[in-house]
Amino acid sequence: MTLALTTAGESHGPALVAILTGLPAGLVLDREAIDADLRRRQEGYGRSPRQQIETDQVDVFAGLRHGRTLGTPLALVVWNRDHKNWTWGMNPWPPEGEPEGKGTKPVTLPRPGHADLAGVLKYGLSDVRDALERASARHTAVHVAAGSVAKALLGTIGVSVEGRTVEEESLRARIDEARKERDTVGGLIEVRARGVPPGLGSYATKEDRLDARLAAAVMGIQAVKGVEIGEGFALAGKFGSEAHDEIRTDRRRDTNHAGGIEAGVSNGEEIVVRAAMKPLPSLMKPLASVDLKSGTAGEALVERSDVAAVEALAVVAEAAVAWELARAAHEKFGGDAVDDFVAAWRAYLERIGWR
Ligand SMILES: Cc1cc2nc3c(=O)[nH]c(=O)nc-3n(C[C@H](O)[C@H](O)[C@H](O)COP(=O)(O)O)c2cc1C
After folding, report:
1. Which string of b and e fits 59-88 if b means at least 16 CB within 10 Å?
2. Among 47, 140, 287, 306, which residue has the most ligand 1 atoms within 8 Å of its CB, making it the best to mutate?
3. CA angle 277-80-127, nearest 5°?
4. Is 136 near ligand 1, meaning CB less than 6 Å away?
5. Residues 14, 57: contact at Cβ < 8 Å?
6. Mean pLDDT of 249-259
7. Lower CB density within 10 Å: C or N end of the chain?
8. CA dist list (Å): 182 to 72, 132, 174, 201, 297
9. Per residue in 264-290, pLDDT tens?
10. Does residue 253's CB lie within 6 angstroms of at least one atom of ligand 1?
């Protein structure tokens, strides 16, 4: 069975939900490890006060017994604690009583750079909130929980995945400056996966290519506008003799310009994925917009927002890469029980003589 992930949840709705199917039975999950990843996503320089309201923790509704997966759909829930302030505004049903709390007035001033304008046009909405609630990156929380499960599966075959920001000090200085100017910033992140065996992904079709799959997984995260594998864009300016990683007699490489993937297949070296995040679109100093109700010029919605979420993106991208690598590994090694998965991995390494 292929691993598959479906998520649901709005930013200020009751909860975020993920359903993971195809996981082998017998995988040991550690609640503390999942919650630690959720905490990492919430930390970071430049985040909004929302992070003090939300103390994300995972709840499991199905697919797990006494900390071991059952091989059945795994249902994860992360509650939105802030929902208590939005029970009228984000009520799934027509609310009773007088409007109270947040989200009671329709939003009609779309923010440039966000889902607001495209969303209302596409779905025929009159309240921008109906678009922005799902487009918001809040639901990356439950993707991080799913990524944590993926990391547990990868851990059984010695693979680790880690995301981090690039240029830490200069990023902080830019965030300080942006906060002062009531502006926002983006930045660069990188995810590295160690211990990935050669042979994940395939050159057979473009859908199977591991580089394409990782790029789609990371580009699928809000505000990511560029993804590269290995030296990516810089390779365009190099000679072939500088760009390619020569092969030693033990089939390993001394360099890793390719970032661990050749022809859409992992080559046994560290997988390196980098992503560029644009500046966040919710500015405290709003940009020009149009009032969709009156058609007159106005200033975009000012919604409580992060100044930057680059450190959070590193955690979210780590989860996305982990999920995609777990999917590729499970395609290759299979197994209804985690022991079958690990045994197939061992037999494969034995066949190719890889250590
Ligand atoms: C972890 C994370 C947190 C984010 N927080 C905010 C935020 O507080 N305010 C904001 O305007 N955008 C935020 N974004 C970005 C928007 O969700 C994103 O720009 C928007 O959905 C439009 O999608 P696009 O940028 O991919 O085109 C965040 C993105 C990530 C990954």
Report:
1. ebeebbeeeebebeebbbbbbbebbebbeb
2. 306
3. 70
4. yes
5. no
6. 97
7. C
8. 47, 21, 12, 44, 21
9. 999 999 999 999 999 999 999 999 999
10. no
350 has pLDDT over 80: yes
Taking the C-alpha atoms of residue 40 and residue 312, their distance in angstroms, rounded to an integer, is 7
* Residue 165, beta-bridge partner list: 189
Cα-based angle 126, 127, 131 (whole degrees, multiple of 5):
105
Spacing, Cα 118 to ligand 1 middle (Å):
15
> Where do we find the tokens 């072939």?
240
Residue 42, ligand 1, Cβ within 6 A: no
Could you tell me the pTM of the whole model?
0.98
- The residues near 300 (Cβ < 8 Å, ≥ 6 apart) are 109, 110, 111, 112, 116, 283, 286, 287, 288, 289
What is the C-alpha separation between 59 and 302, in angstroms, rounded? 32
Give residue 112 CA to ligand 1 midpoint distance, Å. 12
Over the stretch 332-343, which tens digit does the pLDDT of each residue have?
Answer: 999 999 999 999
For 146, 153, 229, 276, 337, the CA distances from 25, given in Å and listed in that order, are: 16, 11, 32, 37, 5
